[in-house]
User: What shape does this take?
Amino acid sequence: MFRPLELYIGLKYTRAKRRNHFISFISLISMLGIALGVTALITVLSVMNGFERELRERILGMASHATISEFNARLRDWESLLGSVAQHPRVVGVAPYVQAEGMLSSGPQVSGVLLRGILPEWEKQVSDVDQHMVFGAMEDLQGGAFGIVLGRELAVLLGAGVGDRVTLVTPQAAVTPVGVLPRLRRLTVVGIFEIGMYEYDRGTAFLHLDDARLLYQMDEEISGLRLKLDNMLQAPAIAREVAATLPGYYWVNDWTRQHANFFRAVQTEKVVMFVILSLIVAVAAFNIVSTLVMVVTDKQADIAILRTLGLTPLSVMAVFMVQGTLIGLIGTLLGVLGGISLALNVEVIVAGIEQLFNVHFLPPDVYYISRFPSELRQFDVLRVAGLAFALTVIATLYPAYRASRTHPAQALRYE
Assistant: This one.
């Protein structure tokens, strides 16, 4: 049974005698090692959370939280369906769209492109593209004017700016007296956007919904409806709720399915990084083993005397577990404080280091995310602290058990 006596003796043994400062030094190193490992683990997880958030926001700046379409990729009677979906309490925005593929050319430059026909006044309800316009505005897309908004990388490749004309080649062919010819249409560039994801900036362009339907011969049909939900992290559950209210059979998809492989890879990387950095904490925690072994060796006579005074083997074991646990607890608390402080200020610290040494860790001309975003999560802090403390407790078991097996007669033989 654990009693205050064991706690008192364990705390007393934590302060080594003057002739045993080396043991105190090893204890201090173990404590600092645990603190450093916990700090590093919390900071790295927070930075990875920040990068994941940035990527998710940039992706969802273009992609929608959920989409509704029919199985033949043509949605009919979409206006009545739009009104029905918009009444759902978890849906905060709905917009129709036409999605198709084509080929853009400007002079000698040619590139494939994913075209999206939109209604600019509706599109801003479900995406943030209008907030990332470099030149022009999404409202410059007017039905019948055949304007186009290009991604910045695509515009650079085509060598096209606002006011220039590009040629769109659609997959549909036109039958003429001279044979089957591809359908061509000259479009005027009215805007350029930069979302910050190469995939979108290089391969996406926007048309007005009416122009897209005319070019791709969709009459009054569209490809589907794009939805913005009140909580994107609950998109799968909300998508199922919306699907259950629809009058008929529709294909309801959410962003977690569309980008599942990407975010699964990010999650796997976080798990691997957590395991690797946990080894730092494990190494520091098991330094406690060597510390306690030396303490047990140094305190053989004291242990023997305590045993003769009636202290049980279990109580002796508790004494040394108190000592090791205290080292781990202090190291863990220091690490948590350091990790939280560093995670909350990592952007400022990195910016200061870059300015001091005149370097750029993430050059803006190479990386789309040129800063170190950080998102501190309470669960990560608790998980890291719990792991570090558990490892330190485990590390005390063997030395404490060895101390409890000390025989008083043998320990006092040469005293």
User: Anything to note?
Assistant: The mean pLDDT is 84. The CA atoms of residues 173 and 182 lie 4 Å apart. The first strand starts at residue 66 and ends at 69. The first helix runs from residue 4 to 14.
